[in-house]
Amino acid sequence: MGELAAGSVYAQYSFWLETCGDDLTPRPRLEGTIDVDVAILGAGFTGLWTAYYLLQREPSAKVVILEQKIAGFGASGRNGGWLYPGFPVSLGELASRYGVETARAIHYAMRATVDEVERVLREEGIDAHFHRGGVLRLARGIHQVPALEETARTLERLGITDYAEWLSAEAVRERIRVTNAVAGLYSSHGAVIHPGRLVRGLARAVERRGATIFEETPVIEFRGGIRPVFRTPYGDVRARVLVLAGEAYLSQLRQLHRALIPIYSLIVLTEPIPDELWNELGWSNRELLSSQRLTVDYLQRTADGRIMFGGRGAPYRFGSRIADAFDRHGPTHEMLRQMCYEWFPALRLHGIRFTHAWGGPLGVPRDWMPTMRYDPRTGIAMACGYTGQGVATANLAGRILADLITGRDSELTRFPMTQHRLRPWEPEPLRWLGVRFVQIGYERLDRIAESTGRPPSGKSLVERIAAH
């Protein structure tokens, strides 16, 4: 494959990579065995942020990143561009598991993470189309109001009174015209970004600080202990510390096959929308936008005036398989297009077309809780399990791992993620049966709620199994 052809192939994986403004020609692969201080698996947000903060703390450290494709190939180059304080485990569940003060501390750390990413973008000169428009959660129909009210009650119960404000249907309409929007919960603590420009710009920033990125160099095995090592088809990388930062792709390693499951999230994107139609739709502040569907939806208005509409729906694949063919699932992509037209009927009336469709796997741990830990006895560090909430969480993970690896005691290193151990998922076929039961059950609950106007009870088996 020629260099030009290789770059154009990778551009096809998402609109974000296609328009990132960076040369996607793969960097050189590893050739031979080398010795370094820190070796990182994965050149996505987690691996790059970890390298960035490690080199900030120890500028002379020899840091190498091994990437099986190119920087940003995985979820970091395909996500919804939601840079906001959302955490994989809800505030209420965090309080239940770890106490109110810990839940509050994680929430405020996530809020500070948005500011930290903005600071780095400014300092490194990365134009990621950052726009702090906030987050708007909608209740589309009366059946979604109880879930939104529960979120508001949880914030109040935890004493987090400065985060969000309740919006009436009229107040929502002043911001954006979405069908069936009867209420909203708005927070200014969030920003929309172009994730492809962020991840590719961050890779360049890490290289400027002295890291080396080897691309098209898959790790096929790792070993901790006295001599930690990553094994690749092209040589070994021996290091004082190994960092596992491959998110869903970690499930493809033999030692971690049941640590996470890869769940596919899919996205469709419209063509640029004319200004006169935007005047009709509103959304001038480019808020991150979602509803209360159990099966998840997430939207953004891009810097060039498109609507990105993402959601779940693609089926879990037996054996935790990951393949390019799974990035596109016709029924789910068509469902997302029709949902977008349903939210914004004017798009159909004006003949607005969809130009892009893509997807990719995200990593889901058995208990939904992300892991950000380092074991100095084995020399292995790991951060993973964001369940689709990784844009900001990965930055927090990078700072935590950098603190742990360099021996710095901080408020961040006392968070429960640093002691969390991944609970293995069930073996197949139980894993497939359980995950598909939840996926199909959520779809059914959404259909019933939308057709009857009655909210899910919260007591069904599927809701109790997947509560987080």
Automatic annotation (TrEMBL):
Gene3D superfamilies cross-referenced by the UniProt entry: D-Amino Acid Oxidase, subunit A, domain 2, FAD/NAD(P)-binding domain
Regions that span the bilayer: none
Gene Ontology CC annotations of this record: cytoplasm
Pfam family, one: DAO
Taxonomic source organism: Thermomicrobium roseum
Lineage: Bacteria, Pseudomonadati, Thermomicrobiota, Thermomicrobia, Thermomicrobiales
Domain FAD dependent oxidoreductase: 37-404
Protein name: FAD-dependent oxidoreductase
Span of the signal peptide: none
SUPFAM superfamilies linked: FAD/NAD(P)-binding domain
InterPro entries (alphabetical): FAD-dep_OxRdtase, FAD/NAD-bd_sf
